[in-house]
Automatic annotation (TrEMBL):
<dbReference type="Pfam" id="PF00072">
    <property type="entry name" value="Response_reg"/>
</dbReference>
<dbReference type="GO" id="GO:0000160">
    <property type="term" value="P:phosphorelay signal transduction system"/>
</dbReference>
<dbReference type="InterPro" id="IPR039420">
    <property type="entry name" value="WalR-like"/>
</dbReference>
<dbReference type="InterPro" id="IPR000792">
    <property type="entry name" value="Tscrpt_reg_LuxR_C"/>
</dbReference>
<dbReference type="GO" id="GO:0006355">
    <property type="term" value="P:regulation of DNA-templated transcription"/>
</dbReference>
<feature type="domain" description="HTH luxR-type">
    <location>
        <begin position="148"/>
        <end position="213"/>
    </location>
</feature>
<keyword id="KW-0597">Phosphoprotein</keyword>
<dbReference type="InterPro" id="IPR001789">
    <property type="entry name" value="Sig_transdc_resp-reg_receiver"/>
</dbReference>
<keyword id="KW-0238">DNA-binding</keyword>
<dbReference type="Pfam" id="PF00196">
    <property type="entry name" value="GerE"/>
</dbReference>
<protein>
    <submittedName>
        <fullName>Two component transcriptional regulator, LuxR family</fullName>
    </submittedName>
</protein>
<feature type="domain" description="Response regulatory">
    <location>
        <begin position="3"/>
        <end position="121"/>
    </location>
</feature>
<keyword id="KW-0805">Transcription regulation</keyword>
<feature type="modified residue" description="4-aspartylphosphate">
    <location>
        <position position="54"/>
    </location>
</feature>
<keyword id="KW-0804">Transcription</keyword>
<dbReference type="InterPro" id="IPR058245">
    <property type="entry name" value="NreC/VraR/RcsB-like_REC"/>
</dbReference>
<dbReference type="InterPro" id="IPR016032">
    <property type="entry name" value="Sig_transdc_resp-reg_C-effctor"/>
</dbReference>
Amino acid sequence: MIRVLLADDQTLVRAGFRSILGGEPDIEVVAEAGDGAEAVRLSARDRPDVVLMDVRMPVLDGIEATTRIVADPSLAAVKVVILTTFDHDEYVYGALRAGASGFLVKDTEPVELIRGVRVVARGDGLLAPSVTRRLIAEFASRSSAPVPPVAPNDLTPREGEIADLVATGRSNEEIATTLMISSATVKTHITRILAKLSLRDRAQLVVWAYESGRTRPGWLD
């Protein structure tokens, strides 16, 4: 069962998401928060698998709430998905940088909302759409606090190839096809890459790839 916390200051939005998710046999909405501070408190209390976090909320915004959840070692298993009204939103990149595992636009189709919750719950970043990749590229290219480039011997040549492909938004299956290896092997390599770079999931791997200069926005054209 995937446990979900809904964090949005609009009661009707929360009710809509609860209605959609509550009808799935493998998803349970365990709590609702009307502001960012409450989202942090309820995350610590209920330990959800996924938090659907509105980016703009009173008391504490979604970015700061995400930062606090990610910074708490006891909440390492909690994944945050940012909810936003517009796909080109400066707050989105800030949230990904803070440790969110992806984002969804509020008017997304119900089937995509459900899919997104499942994708993040199993440990994957919600970064497949090309608009998301371009969003990250745009803001990473002008980030004021770049990450130092990884030393060449920190990643093996194969791990470097896979990191580059993840950064362009490819799925495990697409990477497997490109490199002519199995999806299970790709998943194993990604797990090792995340461990070496001390990253939570592939969403942070994408951000790291741009900020470190390993991947550049022009590569997506």
